[in-house]
Amino acid sequence: MRKRTRPLRARPMHRGIETLQRLVARLMVCGWPATKIARRLHRTPRAIRYLVGTPEFGAVYAQYEAEVLEVEDRKVRRLWPTTVRRLLRLLKHPDPRIALDAIDQVHTMLGPLIERHVAQALERPAGSRSGFVAEGNAAGVIPAEVVTDESRELARQLMRSIRAAQPQRDLPADVIARVRALQGPDQN
């Protein structure tokens, strides 16, 4: 019988394949490359790429991505009315710098989320997502049944406030003088 020369190392328990698939899917949704995922999970990049190439992983990834997008959609639906109201209030401020800062703040908060949704919508083939794109409807057109009167009115107020907050170009003095001359002395 041979005598051991070194003690046995403690080895971590093997994670189940489902757990590993879920972890890889989560890290992929976060935008991590295969090499970084492999380092994090103590695997080789080749093993991660092999795992990603299996059809079972495709199903797990699609399910996880759908869950993440559903959560983000709920966040946007919950935050949107408050954001619009706050933006409208700030756009009516007499100082134009505050109005422009409000636009920047909203863009900072919702910009990455909106850009991600737009990018994913552009990557999908037309008509692949049910609900918003109906047959005979142009891609990206929201049916009238989905939009409520309140949201339509809030969108109108937002557009009016944005237009009012934009600095108006002043006409040159000679153009103003010509217009006043054409209107006559009684309308000045």
Q: How would you characterize the overall build of this protein?
A:
- The protein is mainly alpha-helical and 188 residues long.
- Helix content is 65%, strand content 0%.
- It contains 7 helices and no strands.
- Helix 2 packs across helix 3 (45-53) and helix 4 (55-91) packs across helix 6.
- The longest helix has 37 residues, at 55-91.
- It starts with 16 loop residues before the first helix and ends in a 5-residue tail after the last helix.
In short:
By secondary structure, this protein is mostly helical. The chain has helices at 17-29, 34-41, 45-53, 55-91, 96-123, 149-165, 173-183.
Describe the SSE topology.
Layout: H1 17-29, H2 34-41, H3 45-53, H4 55-91, H5 96-123, H6 149-165, H7 173-183
What is the strand content?
A: under 5%
Radius of gyration: 28 Å
Number of helices: 7
Topology, number of strands: 0
Terminal residue distance? 114 Å
Oligomer: single chain
Name the average pLDDT: 76
- What spatial form do the alpha-carbon principal axes imply? elongated
Biggest sheet, in brief? none
Secondary-structure element series: HHHHHHH
- Unreliable spans are 129-139
DSSP helix fraction:
55-70%
Structural class: mainly alpha
Structure characteristics:
188 residues, mainly alpha, 65% helix, elongated
